[in-house]
Amino acid sequence: MANPTTAFGYPLRLPSLSSLLMLILLAVLLTACAVTPEPLTNDELTLQAEEDIDRLFIDTEPLSETEVLTLPRAIARALKYNLDHRVKMMEQALALNRFDVDKFDLLPKLVAQAGYHSRSEYRASRNTLLSGGDRDSEPSYSSERKTTTSELTSSWNILDFGISYYTAQQSADRALIAAERRRKVLHNLIQEIFFSYWRVVAYQQLRDEIRKTVELAETEFSNADAEIQERLTDPLQALRYQKMLLENIRKLENIEQELSSAHIDLAALINVEPGTNIRVATPELGNLQIPEWDMPLDHMEELAFHNNPDIRERSYQSRIAVKETRKAILSMLPGITLTNANKYDSNDLLESNHWYEWSTKLTWNVFNILKAPARIEHAETGEKLTEMQRLALRMAVLAQVHVANHQFSDARRLFQRADKFFQI
User: Fold this and answer.
1) What pTM was estimated for this model as a whole?
2) Mind listing the domains of the chain with CATH numbers?
């Protein structure tokens, strides 16, 4: 009967555990290579849309049908529920989390390892003298076939610490940039609330009057048309009258069309469903007062340069570019690594199974010297670019201040004329 452990006179070995692991790994890699892009199906898109619609207003306080929305209330709801503002809040939180993560890179590395080693045969060997001679007649070994090891190693690279220090500072500046972007969104949001709110006020005040006037104009147009048909008036004069009526109707309809969408804009800003009937508090006509504004133009320019979020963002970008240059210079230096390890080996043939190790290592990539000038030049160019962008932005902000000053003067003059017209 054939020996099951031999084949053709040679010993038959079963696959080892490492061979099986290699086969499994190869199968996983082949499966990964067979992955193809899978676009979302219509059902998945529909389900995602339904879930998103349900989440749009899940944390939003509904607007009651009897509530009369005031301007401060609209601003408060926008600051609390507006989705764009929430996005900027999350971006700021993400930037702060990134800063917290980068701070941990300043700490030394502390690595704990444990392992199990097994061999099918002893690691036996024979010794031979360098001067020649016969090998030892009997092989010897100094390690068991099965051992367990563990170690706790701490290492600290001074060069990596310096680069991580500047990286953490850059992350801190990026967190400040996220805060400035959020502040910009708040500023724009409040402006949009003011604009949409007063459009809704105007629509509530003028809607009925516009519709009545349009109906009256259409009636007059029909009467003029009837007079033309019955030859009761001069046709040329009647046609001119109809043309004037059509022009007025078109102007009124354009005004209504422009103001009628204000409810939708305001609903989106305060995060309520677009079809919600929003009623706003309307001020008493004749009691509106022009706000006092006597700030000198040079002081307005100074405040704009100091408080504008875009300028502040560019200033932080400049600091990030400067730190990038310092990182490029620091990368030229050699790195010094300090290592301390606490190790254990279960090998009974060792004189001591537990020991400590200390080491100091100096590493230096000589080719960094060759690419250092290009990296430094690139970083310095980035600094100059951010400075030029900041100067261009200051010029734009300066122009905005002057334009806003002129617009305020024009708006005050137009309001005074409209108020006089209303009083007549």
Assistant:
1) 0.76
2) 75-116+146-417 (1.20.1600.10)
